[in-house]
Amino acid sequence: MLRNKDKLLIDKISNYLDENKIEYENHDLIRNVIARKKGKRFSFEDGIKSLVYSLLSNQKKWKDIRPKLKEIDELFFYYNKNKILSESSDYFYNGIKKLKCGNISTKKQMVSLAYDIHMLEKIEDEYGSLEKFFDSFSIYEIVDMIAEGKYKLKYVGKALAWEFLRNMGIDGAKPDLHMRRILGSDRLGYSDSSIASVTEVVRIFDDIANNTGYFKAYLDTILWHYCADGYGEICTAKPKCNKCVIREFCNYPSIVE
Q: Angle at CA 9, nearest 5°, toward 6 and 14?
């Protein structure tokens, strides 16, 4: 897409969200990215919190989790690693289940949480801090290392690796199903595949950010809120094309007509 077309598309969606009072600008991810851009350095406790939030977001509607974040923070002892490591995995699993914030992998995620914390400790031991680790590599290299490489975190693939890093204020877009679908050839046509690949989504967001001047977490948040259940609910698996404000840019109407 042409540069001005990228910006027009994003601005149309943001206007729609504003007009329909769908809050997106106060999103935690945007606040974290802005905070890092202003110089904030994130702690080890922030790292555990970012990991937990990422794990909970797996195959779970965020609208069901966000209202309970304070209770989740309390459940995890505000991310004090010694207190977390002193408890059993069942303590956290049962707590999450009680809050109705679990997903199909929660049991295994909680069993693996101690391992993942020790892996973050290993990174800290080898680099001095998580922040120095982040400073030592490109974001793409870090994603590879924690999703499938030297510092692999259990039950964290590339999509959740991006989510983890975004929770730490590192700018990026999570290549989840919403993004892969809306950017695919059946929708906005940024990819030649009907469902864009994870790698394609990362590249596409790099391009759109360069074309618009918007940072990637902002772009992702706008598109995600346009798609997600409990928020915009427009470009879903069964899109509401009659309500869509970017229909002119989309291939889907011509596919179904």
A: 125
